[in-house]
Records
---
Amino acid sequence: MINKATAKKVLNQLLGSGGQFGELFVQKKVANNLRLDDNKIENSSSGFEIGCGLRLIYKDSTYYGFVDSVEEAKLIESAKILSFAVSNSKINKPLDLNESRNSYNIKILDYPDKVLPEIKKQILVSVNSSARNKSEYIYQVTAALSDLEEEIIIANSEGVFSKNFLVKTFLAVSVIALRGAEVRTGYKSLAKTKGFELFTEKKPEDVASEAAAMAINMLDAINAPVGISPVIIGPGFGGVIFHEACGHGLEADAIIKNASVFKDKIGSRIASETVTAIDDSTLEYHWGSYKFDDEGCSSQRNVLIEKGILKSYLLDVKSSKKLSLPQTGNGRRQSYRDIPFPRMSNTFIDNGVEKPDTILGSVKKGIYAKEFSGGQVDPATGDFVFGISEGYMIENGQLGYPIKGATLIGNGPEILGKIEAVGNDIDYAPGFCGKNGQSVTNEVGQPTIKVSSITVGGTGAA
Amino acid sequence: MVNLKNNDKKNDMETAQKISLLMDKAGIDEYEIYISNSIDNDIEIFEGEVESLSYSDSKGAGIRVFKENSIGYAYTNSFEENSLSDTIEKAILNSKITAREDINGLPSKDEYKYPDAPDLSREMYDEEFFKATIEDKIKLSMDLEKIVKGKDRRISGLDSLNYSDNFSETTLLNSKGFKGAYKSTSCFLFLNIISKEGDDTSTGFSFSYGRNPQKLNLEKIAQEAVSKSVNLLGAKKIKSKNADILLDSLVSSQFLGVIASILTSDSVQKGKSLFKDKLGEKIFSENINIFDSGILKKGFSSKPFDAEGVNKGNTQIFKDGVLQTYLYDCYTARKDKTLSTGNAVRSSYKSTPSVGISNFYMEPSKDKSFENILKSIDDGFYVIDIIGLHSGANPVTGDISVGAKGLWIKNGTLDFPVKEVTIATDILSFCKKIHTIGSDLKFFPSGGFIGSPSLYIKDISISGI
């Protein structure tokens, strides 16, 4: 798309009026989306996008623009206009570009853009029938299959020249079960940074059955009780609570803005000793993984919390300069149209030692939250809310009735101190995270954990 | 200052016609070309400095083809001839695997429910917009920061202060002879502040929008965000109980948004709406009227035609509490043997049309001001903000459970701040329990444009300690 010589020319132009940091982010995206709803393929769509984002930093200010093109003349012209934002007599010359290398190398077997539409269709058709075959109560099935191949080249005035090629495949299945007047929903997704070989490892039909099973289990749900209760959060998607209620507060832009409860807490105890939490963008094929972040910095494994002690924030170029801390490979952006900022990648609470059964057995009366519909958090205060989409009562150490309409509400930092037990059954779940209007791919994860008390919201009796 | 103007931008209708020449030769039955082109400015201010400034000028086209009663879609942001040919080819390829149905096809004039919309160009587009320079917009944002900081000593900082504006042109052309275009301007200012007292931290946000930057009311945004934030300092949890609640219009409009999402014919036809089979039934009390208008004056979602070229109009969905109709695009209207209400929407050139809302609002009462309602409440919860609605409301089952913060009401006055509680109900009970409607209709941009007065609701379950 762009070579070093062109990149160097554009960077020269960009820093021509005295800017301190210049960067090009060139991207090409080929996307396909297929959707099944109401027993038929409702939509099949394909897209092509190409463009280049230009970023200029002077003092604490970022100036950003983009063009829907990668032609040299257009890039030079844009760089020139952008450079007018700065006027400084000291001209910084960009360093020579050196192609970045690292050990993150994954192999794609079955490139999605080459997979025939008819084969993609068959995947969704079999998803539909396996969900419906699960039970007579399955009333509606919606499934989406998306794939993306993207090429990214990043060049900056500090000599970085990185090339990234990403392949992403995503399957999501939503199911509605209906029995009499009871309506319940189920959802499962499968997503990796790999091609259609994804579906040889896990069958789409199994994803469909799991979504259907969830909706069917929930048909027997009783109203969730209100009030404070011990809560066991299941492995996998339960990690979304850590992501929302703590992870966002560790993103360095929140620290700089004094909008995080974790400011000035590096080296301090912020969680119980059982908790070790990690952000790792190098996990091969995971949904939130990459070779380089969207500023050309190598992906890496960052220990955020070690045995309850805060170890690291998540940084991008700008926050790393401002806080004088090394970059962590977490500068990410939605596309060439967007300014990067610190984001999580694959973020999880690490395995502990306890067996999940032992943890369950330790709760006399409480709530087991297996799946969540998502949540929201105020990073400045750490206050959060999460909707439980599949949950159960715990009675005498055993799972009881499923519950509906339940929400967990609390404060991230407080909850971190109340994690009493961490299991040894880590699992991960893919998703998308929105921040400042930009969506990026993330994975959350955790083993089974026990929180001594959280407020549960519902409509049932306490 | 920063202006990355694309030099080769030509008239979009000409571009659409150029694409249509290629499509005429592609052997398809019908097609539609949608081009959107927009210029965006975003400014973020932090501690008296420009934290970031970005400018974008982008354009893309989405094409929808109909071949043998199947639909295919593809989009591109590259207008070179080979990219356009590839896009057409991909759209045709996509049409080979989608469902074949007789009712697929472009809209005809006799399927429009509403006549030609009144001239909205002056509502949607304001020449004044272009008079403000980037420097003016930076100054305006910095002025807001100063006003905020002078308001209260407990303000510890700004979590975000963002100005953004947009000029966009939308062009639609189809093979049945439809040709239309409109342009719009808008700007938006958002503020989220943090205040601290002792160990307690509290946040409060506010925003303002208009067709040009002069329409933004800085004093009002600053006061709202500051009040929200400092009034909630020292908030405590309360015991779980059932209570009467007064929803601020910002909060009630979010609940209305959940209701709106299941009034689309698409969700009803697929059995994903609890309003299915409820036409003619009384859902709310008789004083409630709800509209979706695509031609509302000052409505941010007003436009002359929808995403597939059908005229916009004003649809009354609930009359005296009774469900009158759902919202339709052309496909769902054919399925129900009715007319399209002009509710086909798309979020960008990358997406196919689907059914969605325009300006969706509940009619306010004439005489019940917020203050009057407040005075009438002996014991209740004034909800200022909710969180977790996206995950806490299931529009299919109707369950709603969200986090809430606000102020407890005692004897008609605001008594003490409350946080970390949830309010839970289900959509149909919520609709029935609306007791009093305020006269203070306010609109909020959130996936369409949703307007609600403040609402007083009886007997809702609150979970605390």
---
Amino acid sequence: MKATLETINQMQADGVIGRYAIGGAVGATFYLSPAATVDLDVFVIIPQTSGVLISLAPVYEYLKLRGGSVQDEYIVIGEWPVQFLPPANDLEYEAVTQAITTQVEGIVTRVMSAEHLMAIALNTGRAKDHNRILQFIEQVPYDPAKLKDILERHGLNRKWKSFENKFLGEGQ
Amino acid sequence: MSKPRLQARMASLTFSEKIKILEKLRDRERAISAAGLRPKQPKKPTAR
């Protein structure tokens, strides 16, 4: 992971990407007990040079020149297949901009807040996302008031109610 | 050790320690897939 994060940080320093934040299962592991995953989800803000469409081509070109290899939707950096994900909505953009700074093996990096990870998982809505939310609820490394605020501001209250009804009953 | 206690203990590790565990889990997944003991997982539609 150290080599992977060093490369991503260098890519940021070189201006290929703007701010970034680790999300997905690896991001959740910052708060929870580790759960198996084979990839690293990195949400990146791509500086727009021209046009409206956001392209990851500069990221791939930069990394391929530095030994990265493309595998399906991933690019392998160090030992980790990395998926670069430009924010798809305001929630994900906010999650990147409000990410927490931390370190892995002495390398500075950024991880999404627990509440943003939960909101994104709720919005994505696959079985494994629901499972992750349940882990957060069981292990309680989050601020319920902050989560409520995020859910309200991003129009996720109905999805949360549905999640509560399905997985938590009336007790929550 | 009970599951909740183990989870709490694992959750309290530093991020670096947890990443080391993730890397071991990832390598184990790869070894299992490479040995053909588990069918390759279909591509995920969207990773978020």
---
Amino acid sequence: MNKILLIIKREYITRVRNKTFLLSTFLLPIVMMLFIFGSAYFAMSSKESLKKIAVINDPGYFITNLKSDSAQLNFDFASKADTNNFITKGYDAILDLNNDSLGKKFSIHSKKQLGLTVIDNIESRLDRALEKKQLQKNGISKEILDSINKQAIGSFKIDNRLLNEEGKSTEVNASVNYGIGFGSGILIYITMFIFGAMVMRGVMEEKTNRIAEVMISSVKPFQLMMGKILGIAAVGLTQLFLWFVLIMLLSTAAAAFIPHEMLQQAGEVNKNMPVGGSSEMAMKLMDIQKDISNVNWPLVISCFVFYFLGGYLFYAALFAAIGSVINEDPQEAQSLMLPITMPIIFGFIILSSNLNTPDSPVMVWASIIPFTSPIVMMGRIPSGVPWQQLVASMVLLIAGFIFTTWLAGKIYRTGILMYGKKASWKEMFKWAFRKS
Amino acid sequence: MNILELRNLKKYFASQKAVDDISFEIKQGSIFGLLGPNGAGKTTLLRMITGIFYPDSGEIIFNGKKFDPDNDIVYIGYMPEERGLYKKMKIGEQALYLARLKGLGKEEALRKIKDWFVKFEMQSWWNKKVEDLSKGMSQKLQFVTTVLHEPKLIILDEPFSGLDPVNANLIKDEIFNLAQKGHTIIFSTHRMEQVEEICDHIVLVNKGQKILDGTVADIKNQFKENLFQVGVKTDPHHLMTFIFEVVKHQPDKLLIKLQHGSSTNDVLQYFISQNLPVTSFNEVLPSLNQIFISLVEGTPEARQFESIK
């Protein structure tokens, strides 16, 4: 046990001190934040320039109903410009409201390509002008329609309650459950791949440095393998934790640096949204917050930790076995890795295609069988899982990783001392099941 | 007392009898030479002694008890022929790590590493990485990490390969020192002149079997061909005798082979009777190299694969 601790410590310290680890840990969040805020900044600032648009061939009702927008659009109905000379007259674009045969298509000419948001803005303004015209034509007042809409839309909500065994009902929200399930499933899926590859490369370290024989004459192969798996897990968790903290810090810091007027603008865009006022939005947000707080967080978090670690241990041992039988050439790993990556990918496909029906037989079975359970079960947890299934799944996962670790230990024992030749699946199978 | 006894050890691989029924004993404090051509099964044998492989059959008695790899490996230091250290690790930390894996406490390990580093003039290396070292330097480091925990049994596979004569002597002296302190050394090599110089006891294996076992002097006697060198000035064509035959002659030296039934005194008497002054007379024993070659010769240079039922 003491030796495993020593190995874990070495694996952890040498990796954490490594320059690539430090770079990727600190640079990735910074690059990510720069990317997000940079693109947001450019998207915002592109809205800033006011477009002067000349309007021609107005049948008459747009002049009163098509409103300019102080920030982005300025319609000029008295320009006397045409499509040939609007640029020299100082307009950015010219809007031709001459109906085509279907009466639906207007055309706009501009010198430079207009942004998508500008086109959207013009379209929605034309929509509203046309709507007002139709309402007037049919004798409906805009104010009455608005009040009807306000009363009908969002006035009720299906109260989705879940009855548990004790007869206590809790309110649930399918989309919140969906989000939690999918989010944690995808996180486990991605980390399983990243950590798995890290373990595989880590196991090859003894081979490429030719130190395997020295190590195996000091510690049991199983101790070396476990030490590496656990040490690398600690490195991965450290990195995830640091990323999380850094992204949190950076996003708060970045939010403070965003120019004030930009936030104002963002607010204005919200206000101009055609359907739903800001109070309605706030109500929806509050509902979601309530739904989120209704989720059984202790269960979700403890299950996430369990399936995260269980899934990691289950697959890390298999990746370690693969790492031990290949040589310096990582290319060799591809063909041997396929049978191991397949069930992971398969689990993810099951999760993403059946998440809407968490109790379908496919989901139930996939959440119990340890090859896919770490990913699939997380999709089912938020919407409630019968405890028998949860226990069965957990017990099988524990049994599963004890089995894969034992199996990998046997393969590792032989594989780690082999040089020059890649083992085949047949040979690995033989090593695994022969008596020592 | 025997530190190690091997009894009918066997290890068969899929296509080779790597070790086929080998038994021998090693006395504590001796320097033991394990010899054999490439592919004779030396490494497999050593891997069984170090607990890396389990024998198919037979038993290993270590220090009077049945060898228990889990507990006994801390008493063994093994320097494999396949040299290796973590290249990216600092040298001091690496030595400390390997020593602690052998069960030394941190303080004790540090003290011993410092002693050895001073002895081998390696103090300035502490914060260097292994990849910065030359082959000879990393060889010295490897030797230090092998013997650091003062194992009862030290196994060195080709310890001098890649070392210049000065460093080879340094290591050789340490080997003698360790043997004097009661450590037992197994020394695997095919460099015969080193074996003659260093080893008390040798075993020669070929094709997985032991073909020779004994002290260096015994073995040389066993293989002597009754050859003598006589310091005498004469023309061999003038010598008419059945006591010996001349194998080689130089102006002032003769190499003679004693005929069956004659003794060395018969030879001397013959020269005296011929009135030829003898300036020197000594027996020529075969070198281990010659014995090795004569025993191994005739077997194919590379070991062939065979199928084991």
---
Amino acid sequence: MKTKHQGWGWMLAVDFFFAGMGGGMLVIAGIIELFIGGGNTSLLGNILGPLFMCVGCGFLVLELGRPLQAWRVFMNPKAILTIGAWIMSIAIVSGFIYASFGIASDAIFWKDWTFFRQFFALVNIVTGLVVATYPGVLLGRHKGRPFWVGPGIMALFLLSSMVTGAAAHLFSGFLVSAPVSQEVLNNLPGLVAAMLFLQVVLWCGYIWIKLTGTTEAEAASAKRWLNGDLADGFKFLFLLMGTVLPLVMVLIPTILTQGIGSLLVLLGGVSMRMLVVRSGEDRTWLPGEQKYRARLPLGCEDFMKKVWDNK
Amino acid sequence: MARYAMVMDTRRCIGCHSCTAACKVNNELPTDIIYNPVTTVGPTGVFPDLHMSNLPLICMHCENTPCVDACPTGASIRRDDGIVYVDDPKCVGCLSCVMACPYGARVKNHDTGAVQKCDFCKDRVAEGKLPHCVKTCHQKARVFGDLDDETSEVFKLVNSSNATRLLGELNTEPFVFYIFEKR
């Protein structure tokens, strides 16, 4: 039934994508730094991580009804959005500081301070994980949104953030190969492929659980992904183009296939978030509410406003 | 301290939408914002045993407020007397509360960029008057009052055996109660 929806738009989905990918990049760079050694990820990748988060913040600000007052989102420490905004701010600063260690310039006098580099790598891992996970936590707590509610969405967002982060590092490594260890570059495709496979399994499980879930609203919301208006995007864009195809491509050991595969992973990540945010249109409807809202004027708001204002 | 609540007696509601209109006009709401829609449920059953009822909806002024918890700016406020409202200057229009509310009681005003909702006509209540929707309901289907006052009508209705809450399973503890016809 066609109804008028109040809710988040595509810009929040893009914010989730860039912030999640940036968070994932920070985590991967941090883990490689601490467990394999410094200088194994590309400088470009290390800079792009926090930069992508800045881009995400930009989209979040544009999504607001009053963008010029965006600073107010830092004000309520009990709100998930506030916690996310603070952690993301810390992650951006920490990410840029960590990236600066890789700049081969005498002006960067701290570039040989290994302890501090590892400290910021650790901060990047912690804050990056929070940034990668928090959209899922934010959505999973919405009691009245049947497709989102529950902890499952958190795992999906974390995994997608990690796989897009790894793919972005892989692509960055191809673009600027100088400081990248060949061993890391050789192992990233395997990691991306493994996470993509896990993504297919988790998504199939998630949809199936929702479909056979505890409430009718959950089942109805899942049907949109299989047979409804979200089905084409889910099956073609996300599952086929954004997950299965890149899974195959990154395993073919050529720069061309792995590069294209990495970009397709990003396509999958952004399309998944678009679909998830759009699925939040579904609410647990109150008796008769859907019929009521379907009768409200849709598409003639300007005319109604003109009449109302001139009453 | 008072604890305000409202009871919707659906047995009395005839679905005239007077409450919707009174709220909209007196609160000067834009065209696309409705604080208290009245939905129609049914008809259900098989002729001649048919049944149809009207359901007035409104912000539930919950005890456990997902909207207030979700607000990153502190613009969504729940007072000690239970009234939940939006402090307009603080609202940035992030829609966190809109998405968090399971009852669809909040809407964005596209002209101001902020979110609006029913506040039980708190300015009128402060003057000892009834909210516009309650005052205008000629069927007395809406009853408003202090739940801490044991002599109030709202106290008696809420403590009657047939008062219930919508989406009670979500544990938001709404302070708008419903009385349905027993069938």
